[in-house]
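Subgroup meeting minutes
Present: P.N., E.W., G.H.
Scribe: E.W.

1. P.N. recapped why we're keeping a running log of single-chain structure predictions: easier to compare across weeks, and new members can see raw inputs and outputs side by side.
2. G.H. added today's entry (392 aa).
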Amino acid sequence: MNRLNAILICAVLTGCQAVPGEGPLSSEIVKDAGRSSQEIGRENTVAYDVVDVDARSARLVSNYVATALSRRFGIGGGVGQVVIGIGDLLKVTIFEAGSDGLFSTADSKQTNLDLVVQPNGAASIPYVGQVQFGGKTLEQARQTILDALVKKAVEPDVIVTSMGTASRNVTVSGAVGHSSLVPLNLVPETINEVIAKAGGPVAQPYESYVTLVRGKKTGTALLKTIIENPSENIFVRPGDQIYVTQDPRTFTVLGAAKINRRIEFGANDLNVLEAVALAGGGTDAVVDAKGYFVFRYEEADVVRSLLGTERFNAMLNKGMQPDSVGRYPIVYRLDMSHPDSLMVGQTFPIKSRDVVYVSRHPSVDLIKFLNIVARPVGVASQVSNVVDDFTN
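Output recorded in log:
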């Protein structure tokens, strides 16, 4: 090796890290994995870990079923005891045995009264006065009216019928056929059934998100997940608010791929190989076959299973923190130099908002740096020979 080569290699070893590049090298991503801000030497860094995509990890990630709604609200069950509520429309029919009673005549022995339950939960009935209906079943309301009429009417009997259940409505709005107040039946009804009553979603299930608001609790799930996972198709309750949002799932590709941009899934499912293909694949001249990465905020259960409890707790101690919905930062690495990666990659799913990063090969930075330092001294023609000597 001549003196020029030695000088250039020395310069490379001391200054190659300063060469401009489209993101970090594979070695830099791996180096920072599992380290705290103090260990890295920078403040407020995001603590993450790297997991190799192999048969086990791909299977674990693909088999995970999100349970955002059932975990947040519980799946529910029967409707329980149905009671009268404010705004309900009731039909009260009063019968009398005699023809000259309070509610009977020679032509009819019954009287029908249409009532609306007022904000105080009561409604007025002639000769009875204010009757408290709110919180009572139809039978309890019937018995209350009957007891009040025993000494006033002639052998009375009463039937209370529900004609409208304003207190048992569910609001469905957003990207559905027609936003509406959906009245609940006396049988349990699920989210999918209620959305169907509102005309169904206007977009495909894989790009429709369902948000359920119940009291002070809020939960969001992909409609596709609700359809495929029965435990997520929970039962709704009176007063629930359901909002359906059309939000096409996308992922972002960066680095040494031929296309760097945000890309829509355009399909029900997408694996990592298909995601790379949608970006045109890696650029042969610069791509690092061992450096295909997926940056993701992953579900806590998945991260704990991948890392193991001990490693997971260690990462928490190093500063790994969840996002607003409890997911943790994780980086998946796919080594495309292994033949089985073409099989494993087919089973590893891409999720919405993932960042797929294709790392460049370290020699790219070497060539860039040698070109930079060689030109001023008039030895650019020898750069390729130096690279060969250095890399061989």
